[in-house]
């Protein structure tokens, strides 16, 4: 029974990571300033968090005061931090 429960947990984690990756990719593609750069950085950060799952413990709090470009992008509903959190969820 325990092996079945672990398999379901791994499948649901993969499903949620895929959903977060697709949502982040969609947001990055619609980034107002430079969409190709946002998409590239999203992919690189998701790959980094996949390779080093504990890197988000340093990267996420360190980027809180830095990634707030709402006055320049006009994005009010979504921010760059949302892209980073989705990259963490997709990669880690």
Written overview of the protein:
The protein has 92 residues and is an all-alpha fold. The chain has one domain. Helix content is 75%, strand content 0%. It is built from 5 helices and no strands. The protein has helices at residues 2-29, 35-51, 56-63, 70-73, 80-91. Helix 1 packs antiparallel against helix 2.
Residue share in helices?
A: over 70%
- Low-pLDDT windows of residues: none
Beta fraction: under 5%
Q: How does the helix and strand content classify structurally?
A: mainly alpha
Major sheet size, sense and barrel closure: none
**Termini distance?**
26 Å
What's a quick, concise take on this entry?
The chain has 92 residues and is mainly α. It is built from five helices and no strands.
Task: List descriptors.
mainly alpha; 92 residues; single chain; globular
How are the SSEs ordered, and which strands pair?
Layout: H1 2-29, H2 35-51, H3 56-63, H4 70-73, H5 80-91
Helix pairs in contact: 1-2, 1-5, 2-5
């Amino acid at each position: 029974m325990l092996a079945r429960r672990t398999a379901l947990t791994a499948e649901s984690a993969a499903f949620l990571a895929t959903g977060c990756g697709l949502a982040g990719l969609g947001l990055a593609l619609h980034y107002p300033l430079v969409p190709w750069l946002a998409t590239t950085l999203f992919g690189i950060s998701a790959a980094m968090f996949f390779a080093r799952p504990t890197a988000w413990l340093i990267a996420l709090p360190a980027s809180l005061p830095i990634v707030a470009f709402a006055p320049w992008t006009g994005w009010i509903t979504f921010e760059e931090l949302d892209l980073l959190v989705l990259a963490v969820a997709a990669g880690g």
